[in-house]
UniProtKB/TrEMBL annotation:
Source organism of this protein record: Phytophthora palmivora
Identification of the protein by name: GRAM domain-containing protein
GO molecular-function terms, A-Z: chromatin DNA binding; transcription coactivator activity
PANTHER family given in the database record: WW DOMAIN BINDING PROTEIN 2, ISOFORM E
Any one of the GO CC terms: nucleus
Amino acid sequence: MSINVQLHDGVVPYLVSPYENFFFLIHHVKLTVESGNGYPGQGGCFYGGEGRCYVSQYRLVFVSDSARDSGAYRSFSLPFYGIRDWSFNVSLFGGKCWKGHVNRVPGGGLVGVGRFAMEFLVRLGFWV
């Protein structure tokens, strides 16, 4: 996982390979990420926000709705090979959520293994 991947015109992620294609674009997604071991001084980080998710055969790229702003948190890249211990949570009247752990990418800006939760905010055609 890496934070603030390069974005083309501030909204669309660059492709990492000439063979990569973005197959899906999912709007109205909320991503929360916690990194670090939870002890003070150990580099714990928390990121969260709403935005859209680009899906390719290699990775998921989350782009925050406030990506055009100069904030510290704009995007995340979650490579599929680094995601582990994941689960989907679906309730009858609640939202759908994908939770798991993801290994950090060297030089990606996170410390240690991260915990992520991706919530899909559209239910039965209505926003939550």
